[in-house]
Structure formats: structure tokens, C-alpha cells
Amino acid sequence: MTVYLDATALTALHTETAARRVVLDALAGDPQWATSAITLAEALALADRLAAGADRADLEDLIRLTWDRLAVVPVDSECIARATSLLRDQPLRLSDALHLAAADRLPPPVQVVTFDPAQIPVALALGMQVLST
Q1: Most buried among 46, 61, 64, 86, using CB within 10 Å?
Q2: CB burial of residue 89 (10 Å; 0-12, 13-18, 19+)
Q3: Could you give phi then psi for residue 109, rounded to 5 degrees?
Q4: Which residues lie closer than 8 Å to 56 by C-beta, 6 or more apart?
Q5: Which of 14, 23, 53, 45 has the alpha carbon at shortest distance from 115?
Q6: Structure pTM?
Q7: DSSP labels for 43-76?
Q8: 87: part of which helix (H) or strand (E)?
Q9: Which residues, in sequence order, are bridge partners of residue 35?
Q10: Tens digit of pLDDT for each residue in 69-97?
Q11: How, if at all, do strands 33-36 and 110-113 pair?
């Protein structure tokens, strides 16, 4: 199985919240971790909202260290085509559709870790396992 982290999961991994335990448990159960190319930008923007000063710099460093361990699914024409299809059929934002399109390119089974409620029902409908709070 591959564990797919969206930006909410990547950020939660490095914050003292209940969501952190969900991410840690998912990662402990599988050595294959993946994400979309858009995740780093989203996670760093989240870090700016969650922390300030030295705490923000530390959070950014932790996000970047984890980023180096992730297989990154590119936002290429195939990903955009799949995201477009999802956007036409599902009530999603573009970033959510890109995450799900990236996760959908991974060999099944895929376990999606997200704390974004819009992604959960669509991921389940696509046959993915979902971990959230």
C-alpha cells in the first residue's frame, strides 16, 4: 500500500494536534509515502498561518525534511486531465482535485491521509482508503 499525504496531513505531522497521531500511525504502517507536486507550496502556506517567527521556521524545516522522503507525483497533463474530470463530476476545489488525481495515479491500494472534508467522500468513491480525524 502507498500512503498519500495532502498538505493538511504533511503539516499536521509536525504540529501538536490530534491529527498528528493519525499521520504518524499511517506512516508507521507503510514505508511508501507519496504526495502531489502542489503539496509543498500548500504546506508552507499553512505553516505561515499556523506559526510565527522561529516556530514557523522550525515547522518549515520539518516540512521540507519530510518532503525529501516523499515520492512526488507531478502535475503534468495526465494529472490535469484527471483533475478536470473530477472537477466536472464532484464538488471539489482545484487543489483537492489535483490531490485526488495524483493519488489516483498511484498503484492501489492507496491510503489517503487528509483533514480536508471535501476530499474524503470523493477519495472513498474512488476506492481509496481514507485516514482522517
Answers
A1: 86
A2: exposed
A3: -80, 150
A4: 47, 48, 50
A5: 23
A6: 0.94
A7: HHHHHHHH--HHHHHHHHHHHHHHHTTSEEE---
A8: helix 77-89
A9: 72
A10: 999 999 999 999 999 999 999 999 999 99
A11: unpaired
